[in-house]
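Batch job 17 of 40 flagged for manual review because the log was empty.
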Amino acid sequence: MTLELNDMQGLLIRGFGNLPSAQYVLLRFSDFTGGKQYLRELLPAITPATDKPDEQAVQVALTYAGFSFLQLPAEGLASFSREFREGMTESHRQFILGDNGENAPDNWAWGNPAHDEIHLLLIIYAKDESTLAEKLAVEKNRAESYGVLELHTLPTGLLQDHKEHFGFRDDISRPIIEELVDNVEKKPGVTFPAGEFIMGYKNLYDEYAPAPSIPSSKDVLNVLPVSADLPDRKDFGKNGTYLVYRQMEQDVFGFWEYLKGASKDNSEAVSLASKMVGRWPDGSPLTLTPEKPDPSLSTANGFGFWNEDKAGLKCPIGAHIRRTNPRDHLVTERTQKDSLEMAAKHRMLRKGRPYGTPVSERLVPEEILGLPRDDEKRGLHFLCLVTDIRRQFEFVQNNWVNFHKFGGLDQDADPIIGNHYKSDIVVSDEFSIPAYPVKRKLKNLPNFTTIKGGGYFFFPGLRALHYLANHE
C-alpha cells in the first residue's frame, strides 16, 4: 500500500538530521476557542512528510489532556489506548516502567500532572541557532496571542560523529520501513511494514493497529477517512502514531568513575564500558570484533547472536544492545526463527536527540577519563514512534530493560539505562560478564541514567489536526 506522505508529519519518515539545532516546547491551552484558533494558524507551518526542508521544520503532538481540552468527541477520547489515556505517571505504569526511587515522577522536572498539565509538544528544527531563535520567537508570539502557555522549553542538538554523551556512537540499528524502499528485500527484524510505526497500514500481524476513531456523524466537514476496520466510524489515527518522550539525564562522570574504579587502567575501563553497551565507542559490535574496535565495522548492523554469540562470551547477554534489540536470540524462545519474530514485534522508531554541552568536543573515552567533573546537565531526549505503546515501548522497558532476570540473569538490569537498586525482593544493580572458565560480575552499579521528565503523546496526521482545529 502506498503511504500517504502528504497527510503525515515529516518526523515519521526522517529525522531532520540536516537541521541540527532544535528545541522541544511543552505547552498548555488556557482557552478552548483560542486553542482551536491556534491550531488553525499553526497548521500551515507544520512540515509534511513530502517536504525536505533545509531551513526549518515544525512538528506537533498532543497529550490525552490536550485532546480532552479541545473537546475531541467523547467517543474519540475513549478510543485511544489505555496506556495513552492513563498517562506515563499512572501508579501501575510507574511499576511497569521502573519509574521508582530516583526515577519517580515526583523527582521529574516536567511531565508529572500533579505539578503541571501538558497539552501540546511543539518540536522545532532549524539549520542553525540563529534560525532556531527566530522561529522560536515567531512560535512564542503565536502561542501567546491565543492564550497558549509555554511551560517548558528544552534545547537539544546533535553531537559529533553521531555520539551520545558517554562517548559511544548511537542510533545505528534503525528499522527500515518497507513501503519507503523500492524493491526492498524483506528481512525479519530489519525491514518492517509501515503499520508497526504508522497507523492506517498493516503491521507484522497483517492487521491494522487499533487507532482512535470517531462516529462518522461527528465529522460534519468530512475531513477524516473512513476507518478500515470500522466502516461506521472515521479514522482519527490514520497517518499518525503514538510518540513516547523520556528525558534521560546521563551522569557521564559517574559512569566513567565507576568503570575506572573497576579497572586496572583506562584501557580496561573502556573495554568494560563496551561490554555494557555491546559496541565499542566507534560503534563496531563486540559480536563481530570482540577483542578490539574495527573502524570498518563502525556502522555494522547485519549480525545476530544465535549462531555467533549465544553464550554472550563476546557481547554479554545483559548488554544494552542485546536488551533493547535481542535480534535472533531470546532464551524464552526455542528456535532462532521464533526469537527473530518475537524481537521484531517490539521494535520502535527512535527519533531522539542529546542535550547539554558534551564533556569534550570529540567525546573520546580516553579523554573523558582524565577530565575533572563539572556541573553541566546533559543527557538524551528519547523520542520513539510506535502504534502500540504497550506492545512496543512498555514491553521492552519492563521485560528487557529493567527485568533483573532477563536472558537467564539473576540481579542485572540494563547497565546503561536500567534502574539499579536493592530491595527485599529485587536486586538489579549488578552486571554479569560471561567468560571462560569464570564469569565476572560487577556490583553496586549506581544509576548512570535517570528520568527527568516524560509523557505519552499522539502524533496526528494532518487531516486529524485539521479536524481537531475545526470541529464543532
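Reviewer: the log was empty due to a logging misconfiguration, but the result itself is present. The first strand starts at residue 21 and ends at 28. Unflagging and moving on to job 18.
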